[in-house]
Amino acid sequence: LLGTEHHPTVPYHHEASGQVERLVKVVIDTFAACVVNTKEEWADHLQLVAFLYNTSFNEATLRTPFLSTAEIQILLAI
Fold this sequence. Notes:
- It comes from Gongylonema pulchrum.
- The protein is mainly alpha-helical.
- Helices cover about 45% and strands about 0% of the residues.
- The chain has one domain.
């Protein structure tokens, strides 16, 4: 679905679970900032939220998720 890959983790592997939980929190917080009226609007903002996450700078890796996977840096003119 949507070009995603599922990689199951080992039960009770806290490092992997923590990474996923952090991602879920960021995505939920971003949706909360975008969707103000109804929960049904989330689908309208899915591509925007994915783009925002994939182009956000990660201080731990010093890269964006998009740069880490595609080796292409997205530059936005603001």
